[in-house]
Amino acid sequence: MNRTLRGKLLAGETRRLLIDDGDFQHGFIVEELMISPVAPLGEATSNATSAVLHISSTQPADFDWSSPQQIAWAVYNTNPTNTQTDIDPDHIVIRELYITNLNATFPLNYMLHIKDRTMTPAHGVLQMVKEVTYND
């Protein structure tokens, strides 16, 4: 089953999006992450808005691709207008999922598409270990 999660984050806010269902054989794959400023273009906004998806309740200070806790990163620039999103294609969310607005001044809109994933017990355990220890 596919799901869409969307909302608005205040400046610097972290929000829990998914809650652990206790089944380590059930998870989600993040297929797409989109962000945008809340204010319409042309109004006073920041030049960049950024967000990070992470699996720890600890609020990240920045993008850290070496962290096993961060799984997706997005930047929306208003001058010039462009967007970049990077998602770890191999990560399956087993426990909880959070999103943080890294902009300390402006709110942002977010929308992400996730897909259910059922795993064998061995694959579920492997994903849980990966969340804690994986670091390239």
Description:
There is one protein chain. With 136 residues, the protein is mostly beta strands. It has one domain: Jelly Rolls, CATH 2.60.120. 10% of the residues lie in helices and 47% in strands. It is built from 1 helix and 8 strands. The strands form 2 sheets. It has a 5-stranded antiparallel sheet with strand order 2-7-4-5-6, with no helix packed on it. The longest helix has 13 residues, at 121-133.
What's this, in brief?
This protein is mainly β and 136 residues long.
Q: What layout of secondary structure does this protein have?
A:
Blueprint: E1 2-9, E2 14-18, E3 26-37, E4 48-54, E5 70-78, E6 81-87, E7 97-101, E8 108-118, H1 121-133
Antiparallel strand pairs: 1-8, 2-7, 3-8, 4-5, 4-7, 5-6
Core attributes:
single chain; 136 residues; mainly beta; Jelly Rolls; five-stranded antiparallel beta sheet; three-stranded antiparallel beta sheet; 1 helix; 8 strands; 47% strand; elongated
| Element string (H = helix, E = strand) | EEEEEEEEH
Number of domains: 1
Considering DSSP H and I runs of 4 or more, what fraction of the residues is helical? under 10%
Strand content: over 45%
Structural class determined from secondary elements: mainly beta
CATH architectural label: Sandwich
